[in-house]
Structure of Phosphoserine aminotransferase:
Amino acid sequence: MNRPFNFSAGPAAIPEEVLQQAAAEMLDWHGCGMGVMEMSHRGKEFISIYETAEADVRELLAIPAHFKILFMQGGGIAENAIVPMNLSRAGVVDFVVTGSWSQKSFKEAAKYAQPHLAASGKDSGFTRPVAPKDWQLSSNPAYVHICSNETIDGVEFHELPDLRALGCDAPLVIDFSSHVASRPVDWSRVGLAFGGAQKNIGPAGLTIVVVREDLLGHALPITPSAFDFKTVADNHSMFNTPPTWGIYMAGLTFQWLKRQREGELTGIAAMEQRNIAKAQRFYDYVDGSQLYVNAIDPAWRSRMNIPFQLRDASRNEAFLAGAKAAGLLQLKGHKSVGGMRASLYNAMPMAGVQALIAFMQEFERTSA
Amino acid sequence: MNRPFNFSAGPAAIPEEVLQQAAAEMLDWHGCGMGVMEMSHRGKEFISIYETAEADVRELLAIPAHFKILFMQGGGIAENAIVPMNLSRAGVVDFVVTGSWSQKSFKEAAKYAQPHLAASGKDSGFTRPVAPKDWQLSSNPAYVHICSNETIDGVEFHELPDLRALGCDAPLVIDFSSHVASRPVDWSRVGLAFGGAQKNIGPAGLTIVVVREDLLGHALPITPSAFDFKTVADNHSMFNTPPTWGIYMAGLTFQWLKRQREGELTGIAAMEQRNIAKAQRFYDYVDGSQLYVNAIDPAWRSRMNIPFQLRDASRNEAFLAGAKAAGLLQLKGHKSVGGMRASLYNAMPMAGVQALIAFMQEFERTSA
């Protein structure tokens, strides 16, 4: 089966092997006579799915033992409230705004905490974040929030900030929704990471939270029990019925990730090498073209989400129609930025990038 | 394919036709080249799935136009916080406790409102709820909360209370998680209904909320934006990325429901007739047996969740092992009640009830 290449920013392409396995097991998981959606979350079948998924993601992302892994619901937007409910103690929280998603987080936190804008890339149209050395951190924030990859704006932290080196002892919170599992995470610099699954891990409706144990247990009294990290951790993500299908799909994706190889590299290291190569190839092409442009500071360009504009915006509709006809789907940019966006998540092979570039070359040639 | 009969209380059995369709469309929905999990929630493909699901459930449940239908996340336990956040205005809320689920709702509401216990069936071990005429309602509660079917305790409201007839003008909130779509709803008596999907509608991770429009817009300031009913309604359940797969599966289930026929009856009316017949058959058998007992007041017995005990509890493990060997799955009762529980949701055919009774008869005969 030759499927089109799907460049959606999320919900996004899922590896074909994963979808095929899910279809094959739909009515009967491992001979138990039930599909995964039909299992009690407290039965031994689902518990084994859950425990395998948790162990696999811990291994893949090298998550240290003193971090809890939570499977929750509500996505990044719900976490924009849930994180300050759990971590702020109603105090000062520093936000570094690098695009649409960190801006949303900053705004929502005002319901629960005293958000302080430590830096904003808004003056540059979010094409160039403020470097950590220039952040105006508070003297004693409850935590510092960044979005480590901005899905809409296409900027990515290629190194997580070292808050201690900046003279700040607060935990770092990262929203890693749109680049989770695309590269390793330096957990020594992180207090909490959260992400919706629907870009690189699985279907929408599953949220993964990785939180240092010492940060648990300080939720505001108005925190819903279902969203109190300590309650969730103490109940192994089963205080409320978890999104069982999402956890299963994420588990299949983790197993797929573990099978990936690039030379000597495996798992996330292999994926990172591929992701570097895919992004490099695409940016090189865009930078060398006359028709397309990506305005992001090269040091901050995202490997996952690449917004690009046609210099002649009147050609946008023709571009999208032609791309679709060529089997290249969901390339329309976010409405707040316009133009196009190619999301090159783990499930996008180099062949998809090559096909996109080939189409863009032909489109540029015939547009001239 | 002969699958076992799955009596899980939830996540629960899904109609085989629905699972087969989901498997067949897994890699390519309607020729678009993407699976449902891979689609942007803002693309025309998913929008059509969403709009069809919404229209179908409105038609099936005869939901009036002045009610909004919201597709959310977090299940009933999250709604135990989200409903008082949205509806209580931090005032008095009356709770009628008929079992485990309404007890949980009562407890969680204390974070946001002044919960008042209007009635409790605890003295009877939740075998016999307090009749509405004996409820001690407050003079002006923000709303009155009931759980219209208690999944664990096996009691069901066969008629929704008419609060106006009781001299109360407050809206009635019903947690209908475990009997939604099993029978019609008298919306003239309801202000808001909520339910997790994982019993009668689809997979875990999707919550359906049906709310009268005039109740929107009064959320407490600490309500997360993702859980503010007005924000959710104004954004057609897409303020945050919705659980797209859950909505798709619910939509397939709604279409399956629309295809059901019993004589002249279709849809929910047909399902109700079947559900009455299945429950009657099972209760009749239990009441006539020497080994099995159901302690619930017959006027309040649930059609969906039937807890039953073996008079000789030492036979419990043998019962469960024998049932599993006979292709009758997930019959173990909730740990707080013990014994057994047969959940007879829409997806359970009469043949499953007959098979269970046949096994129980044989087990009783050989246990004597």
Remarks:
- The two ends of chain B are 35 Å apart (CA to CA).
- Chain B touches chain A through 68 residues (CB under 8 Å).
- The longest strand of chain B covers residues 114-120.
